Amino acid sequence: MANLKETLRNGGKVTGTMVTTFMEPDVITMLQVCGLDYCIIDCEHGSINYKDAADLIGRGRAIGFPVLVRIPEVRREVVLKYMDAGAYGLLLPNCDTVEQAKLLVELSKYAPLGDRGVSLLRPHAGYQPVADAPAYMKQTNEETILMVQVESPVSVNNLDEILQVEGIDCAFVGPNDLSQSMGIMGQYQHPDFLAAMDRVIAAAKKNNKVCGVHFTGAPEDLLPYIEKGMRMNLWSNDIGMMMARARQGMAVLKK
Fold first, then answer.
1. Which of 33, 71, 107, 205 has the highest count of CB atoms within 10 angstroms of its CB?
2. Is the pLDDT of residue 255 over 90?
3. Active-site choice (45, 124, 190, 214)
């Protein structure tokens, strides 16, 4: 399994995409073949169920491709099911408070950092007996990536404190919701939006954490933020990639 956290600790950059609709596990293999570093399954929006997500996560583990999950809410059952299925990490949407971040850590990490429920003969352990449970749990804690999604001015204002929570690795901007909540939906060159992005980058740098953003349009949209230091980013999604290629082809064939 590619170690995203090790790459990020060493100052590297990773680029993934969002899987939103296509639940065939071969999609995970295709993303790896195309050179992406990881993906996030979107279980906040859409109709993806636990079984669909587990199948995608399982393929990722089988081929060494990190699959994370954007959860719909921070609740014990939700977190446990995805973590026990073997998710490499979790993204919590609409994280506005320290309390939400602390609860994410509590439910996702084993003791002593958290209080994740222990069930070791599961997909996350490859159905292999765990001879040294404390060592396995410590390693899992170290490898799991926890991301908080910044989607409101409240989140931006509280981000410095949120990123001080031990176990939180990444501040991740959802530009649609952030710009909407600021009253400037989709205006990504608006001075207020740019200022908010700079505050996210500064907070991450101050707390020695990683930050990133998800843009679904041209890949060039990400470049300015990569240059500013955002190192865990998402580009496009399964729907966008398929439809862009379809439109490109049909524009030629229907001339």
1. 71
2. no
3. 45
Burial profile 171-189: b = 16 or more Cβ within 10 angstroms, e = fewer: bbbbbebbbebbebeeebe
Instruction: Identify whether 45 is a catalytic site residue.
Output: yes
DSSP collapsed to 3 states, 190-223: CHHHHHHHHHHHHHHHHCCCEEEEEECCCHHHHH
Contact partners, residue 16, CB within 8 Å, separation at least 6? 36, 37, 38, 39, 40, 68, 232, 233, 234, 235
Given this model, what pLDDT does residue 6 score? 94
Assigned token pair, 128? 């292999």
d(CA 159, CA 46): 27
For 82-140, what is each residue's pLDDT tens digit?
999 999 999 999 999 999 999 999 999 999 999 999 999 899 989 998 999 999 999 99
φ/ψ of 251, rounded to 5, equals: -60, -30
62-82 pLDDT, tens digit per residue, is 999 999 999 999 999 999 999
